[in-house]
TrEMBL record, chains A, B, C, D:
It comes from Massariosphaeria phaeospora. One of its GO terms (molecular function) is L-lactate dehydrogenase (cytochrome) activity. Residues 10-87 form the Cytochrome b5 heme-binding domain. This is L-lactate dehydrogenase (cytochrome). One of its GO terms (biological process) is lactate metabolic process.
Length: 504, 504, 504, 504
């Protein structure tokens, strides 16, 4: 975050100076009042060169901001390309076309329900969907392929029913537990999600503050909009954070990141293992297409390349060759407990135990990677009996994420044997709609639900939650009914209640 | 019900006298033509002080009426706070804002179907939904969280199918049975439901009369709008009532209530064990918010506190520490048979037998407490085989409630082994829409259905109903289908029948 | 059918003569140009006295016609009450109120699709629903209670899937079979359904002609609109008919009917055993209410009585005490094979074999009696393995009815072991919409489907159809999914395909 | 393709010459500028004579083109009936009535999304549905009876879920495999589908080119719009094609076709065994009716005959007597590997192995033949364990087709043991909407999905795909839920999220 590195320059650049570098042969852009020469960087840009060229010679701050941590230009662009401050008064204001969608959105923002009208985590999603920018909403909400897994993640919880116990003294209910040795108020953590600034200008640090207030752990994402250090800096004294890691092909880079995180006090390293390639999320792709559609109408071939390019670019950063043989090395470079995030069947959990890691997150990446991957909660129900049979249930900590929306979901996971659950999107939606207070209320609602529902299930303590309190017989049946009899439905008169008298 | 306690006062208060006490420092309200000083009571009010302050210095009768039994002020407010009669002619009439919703509702009331158009219990619900005040409807109809259990309660009956017997002489069909020794016409009782005056100005006594007419038992609710004694007084000579009990932290209060009920002739004590804390019902909360929304728009923080406050207040009245160790004490203070209402798994039924109680109600509180609690009928199917295996089936009486809408539902429960079923909301809806005649017709419809369906299943007597008459294989499968293939549905042309000729 | 019994009277009555008898003290009605004194009959009328009094002193032909066989008045009304011919020119024409519903219906009749646009049996239902009178449609289409069984009947076939065989020589496909010794073209018969004239002025004889044309058997209903003899008379030389029988309390009447049927050549006696009381069909009741609603608005109590009265009246005709002990008597009074229609579980099929009857129809009365009775096809799948285990499969003939709409449905039943299936409503709909040609086409469509689908399943002969050609694993699972997650659905954006360019 | 056979004729016919032959007694039609006398052919025309007579004496090119391969007239019409070239300038232009549907369609064509907006195979279907002619769409998209199997084909894949493996080195992913010895890029082939010119004027050769570009195999359909030789000619050097064969009653014809195909280089012979008679597809029939409806309004009887006639005509071409005893003969007349296309249960697969064929395609003909036939993928799950048990899994190659829309579907089939899958309709839709580039993009999308999803499931090579990577427990459950509780749904208020503020 060294925006001031060229401050010594006496003379500011003018808008006209920059505007001359408006082609792929010489491409400057303005970000936060400074000009950068990105000509050589164009072919390397993970998002493709086109999106940069759209701002060649212009101010790109608005587009740049939510997608990139503020230290990006310092980190990835040589200082020699930092061309200095720009006198922003001389930069021509782009006259934006009236966007009717945006106009409607602004209207919806004005009519937003007040925060107190949100009674559960779904409510934040309902509001966010109406008030977020379409592309931001699409990025957060989209999943892989037909989004079957995305929805199954929540739906799976609906297949688990309770067998509550009565006449248990539940005057005092203690929802707290520990995660990797850290005492937390309630068995959830804020899991890693990318690009927080799409939803809120302050990005992930809003979640840091919410996590502190409710004494839960935040997992810092590799692909945050804020820089790693900003998120660490936002932490209060004894607050605990974990690091989510996409492993870089260049292990030196990976090592540097891990060591830095440990130095900055991170208490757990969660290696993402379900994303050798980032998934195709068609809702997101469609939304982006619409966004820049007017500029690319003529060149039909371009779009294929661009999406391909993005995939390749990301593949070149995340290492698809990561394998079990790398685990010993990770164990050698850090003292942080190491957990594998994205394990999806019991065979791999057993292997993880044997490999000596400290835990796993049963997860399908929020339904954003492989469609028809099973939900974390279902895999949990497969995993725990096998672990218990071998007496291995205490050799690692098991977490799940995906689809958690209610405290009853958390209780179900803990009953089955999870130490806790990760929650991602709901907090993003709360943050996007209402900022910090939204996150605060979302967490408080979960706590209220947790306390009440532990009472109602007959447990005064998290340790009392156990598998006999659940009926999971319907959980693992992935079936669909026979396709609808459309002709038959067509001729059936549904029953209706009594008819009102005619209006006079 | 001692409204006349201050009648000796010669001089009536004027509206202006009362109007001066319109703040939290001095807060008087008028109820039924009398003024009360509730200043000191404000912080203790379970519904929060705000709702009272809204009426500070004014007539609160209309708001007070449906929520509180008439003896509330006598019981809970010291006589010194009873400020005397008010000359109602001097009280300024509040000019109510035109409420378009209410206007529409009045229109719907005018167009109500006549009673004879209701052919089943669902029909009353259809009418009630249209003609009840929104908040009253929301209170009655709401359930916990996502209302999954609320709906599962009825849906569970749909998973049980009949295996009827033919060529049985069913010329005479006897639907009568006994419950705790009382002979009743048909195996249902009117279960306890709160706040009857929300639906009808006379409240629970309307149900007392209906129960008498059809010779079924009424269970008197702790949280009735009418006072306990009013409901007892409405009873006819040999009519039987039971008492539903929320156990108070102060066992002396509880003892007093139980002894009073026994003295007044109650024949059964049903201790609610599924409500250590009253559930969150979001539909109800949303409706209340809307109701007083205009007054609280500015203070966003208030709402959280208020709902919290209500939860706490109710928790301080109902004892969340109630446990198995209390059962012997209950058995010692009354000769009434004792039943546990809200048992939800076979383990607890076995324990209830061992504890020596006389029966259990398998219930999830009408889906208003723990979402994803199983239906009573499903728990019944789990319980009875275990009891029979141990030869314990006659040691207690088993009842269920929740979701009963048809006589076939009653038959299913009795076939499985229940002595009878409790029915709550349907009678509230019948009463709310059509008053006493509605309740009468609702009960008569059940009797007609019962007689006919016993004929059709081939049983001339309740004792002939048995498990071999049912196919329950689909009952306990809590599954959901794979999430919809939205893209696929999007491109599939449903079949349609032959097309009409074009209109000329 | 002795309309001419009073023809010798020289002087005709005038409309004015009849109009004077317009009260319950003296009530005459005109039917087909003759006057009848029905005063004493009023309290006995199964449909209640009210409906007759509506026509007191007037011409009731239009209302009378579809509900009563033409010999009704001769059979049930003493000749002394036949008051003679009426000069219809002197009878005042009732000016009918303009009925907007009827106007719309007439418009739909004009726009009816031509017959060739009906490609399957559902299509006739689609047309009939639009062009039939509302009350007639309601009578035909309604079922018991929530109409769950009504729909399950067809839906059950959807749970049975094929395991077709390939490379079987199917050049010639023979769909014929025998039923009770009669050779028929295809394994279905026209089952008994009541009140054919509601759908078509000629009533059941339309079906007689269709059955002849396609060489299938017609089962004559007890409650036909045509008289039994009319339906027999409509039969051609070697055509075979069966009789469906509701057993009368007066066994002498029953005996007379059976003997008459045998004399007239009926080849099978199907005793209805699933209707000790006729079911409540709410759609039908609602439609009737609407029909005469304007006349009864004031007297709310009447309707209850009337429906009760109808139930009682019908109960007094059909004998609810009919039981297994009556079977030997039936076997003694006729040489016709005797079959029980409406058997619903394997225990009763075994008992039927032991009782010595010649067959059973596994049926739930088209879903019109007991809701949640299982479908005939499902009961068949329960019955046949047990019969085969005992070697009893050839001791009786098994039929099913209910929900058959496709030749594949017939094939499924025959594969499982049925001799054939009864089809009722579809032919009523075909007849109601298109008369005789409709029935003809409906039957031809079934034949075409049958031949084709036998080819496709790899059977050239009905005898080759066998259980290994089916997958019935999903058949007996009466389950419902977890209730919908309405909040969740509320916030999920379904996927959509590519968006069209904006309209210019 | 000998259009020039009469070119030596000096004088061209005039439109008037042809117009005189406009009845069934003398019927000439013009096709591609030449006149043909089809009088004697009328009764033999598989599509019925009516459709030809509509064009008697006129230019029939537009109607003829998509339905018939160009060599049809040469093959089936004696040269003596080729009446010579027509001076098209003298042929009267038919003034077409303005067709509002066609007008709307043209408008939709103008607004077609650009190709890059198609992100998956369903998207092409979405576009094709909007821009294809109604009759063409109906022909491609329709299925048998209620189209239950049609939809089940895709739906079945949704019941199979993944058990992906993590930490497998998937840097390089190889999606290639072999089919009947041919190396292909990805385990799918373009399966045979009829009448390609309905969708695109160039017909099946568009698919030939696409298959070449992506190195996959094309199966040439018997009922192509292009002639067999045209499709062979379109092949590039080392490209591989297979032949799909409907077996003709005249085995000499069949032999000639097979020998010709082998000579032209076909590498596999797929004998269709699921179509002894072509299925009734009602959507298709309805669409055709509408198309020519105005001409046949008066003659209601005609339509029945016509459809019957078509069925008979096709039956006389395809041999319904084809049986297992014919297999040795096929093996004797060709060296091409022989596969049976349309096998539907394990018993027939075993018999196929014993009969010595080289493979089978588990298929239900795209849901166009027998409704309630199971999906190929489900039959595959039934077949493979039995084959493996016998050690026969390598004695034949197993393919499936039907419902494949995603690379995950392909992966599922290969995991279960298929060598590959056939894909038909999706490429027709891509071709119909976007021509060659559409087919290209569709195939490329599958390749992209395949590579990505193999990475995500943890397989770098097709040979690593195995059954342990799947959860198929829900696959074979053909069940439907209990019919909807329509009355209940009617009275339930679905939950809704927070309400927006009122619009000002």
């Amino acid at each position: 975050m060294n925006h001031n590195s060229n401050d010594t320059q006496a003379v500011k650049l003018t808008g006209e100076d920059v505007a001359q570098h408006n082609s792929k042969d010489s491409c400057w852009v303005i970000v936060h009042g400074r000009a950068y020469d990105v000509t050589d960087f164009l072919p390397e840009h993970p998002g493709g060169s086109k999106i940069i060229l759209k701002y060649a010679g212009k101010d790109a701050t608005e587009e740049f901001e939510p997608i990139h941590p503020p230290d990006t230009l310092d980190k990835y662009l040589d200082k020699s390309k930092h061309m200095g401050e720009v006198d922003m008064g001389t930069v021509q204001q782009e006259v934006k076309e009236e966007d009717p969608d945006e106009h409607d959105r602004q209207d919806r923002v004005k009519r937003m329900p007040i925060l107190e009208q949100c009674y559960n985590l779904m409510d934040f999603e309902a509001v966010a969907r109406r008030v977020m920018k379409k592309t931001a909403w699409a990025y957060y909400s989209s999943g892989a392929d037909d989004e079957i897994t995305l929805r199954e993640n929540h739906s799976a919880f609906h297949k688990i029913w309770f067998r509550p116990r009565i006449l248990v003294d539940v005057e005092k209910v203690d929802t707290s537990t520990t995660m990797l040795g850290t005492k937390v108020d309630i068995p959830f953590y804020v899991t890693a999600t990318a690009l927080g600034k799409l939803g809120h200008p302050e990005g992930e640090v809003v979640l840091t503050k919410g996590a502190k207030k409710h004494n839960v752990i935040q997992m810092i994402p590799t692909l945050a909009s804020c820089s790693f250090d900003e998120i660490c800096d936002a932490r209060e004294a004894d607050q605990v954070q974990w690091l989510q890691l996409y492993v870089n092909k260049d292990r030196a880079v990976t090592k540097r990141i891990v060591e830095h995180a440990e130095k900055r006090g991170c208490k757990g390293l969660f290696i993402t293992v379900d994303a050798p390639q980032l998934g195709r999320r068609e809702k997101d792709m469609r939304s982006k297409f619409a966004d820049i559609g007017s500029n690319v109408q003529s060149s039909t071939g371009d779009d294929v390349d661009r999406s391909q390019g993005a995939a390749r670019a990301i593949s070149s950063f995340i290492d698809p060759s990561l394998s079990w043989k790398d685990i010993p090395w990770f164990l050698s470079i850090t003292k942080m407990p190491i957990l594998l995030k994205g394990v999806q069947c019991v065979e791999d959990v057993l292997r993880a135990v044997e490999a000596g890691v400290h835990g796993v997150v049963l997860s399908n990446h929020g339904g954003r990677q492989l469609d028809f991957a099973r939900s974390g909660i279902e895999v949990l129900a497969e995993v725990m009996p096998v672990l218990r049979e071998r007496g291995w249930q205490d050799r690692i900590e098991i977490y799940i994420d995906g689809g958690v929306r209610r405290a009853t979901d958390i209780i179900k996971a803990v009953c089955l044997g999870a130490k806790g659950v990760g929650i991602g999107r709901p907090f993003l939606y709360a943050m996007s709609a209402y900022g910090g207070p939204g996150v605060d209320r979302a967490m408080q609602l979960l706590k209220d639900e947790m306390e009440m529902n532990m009472r109602l299930i007959g447990a005064s303590d998290v340790s009392q939650l156990n598998p006999s309190m659940l009926d999971t017989r319907g959980l693992s049946m992935h079936t669909a009914t026979v396709p609808t009899d459309t002709l038959g439905l067509n001729v059936y008169d549904p029953l209706v209640g009594p008819k009102e008298k005619a209006k006079l």
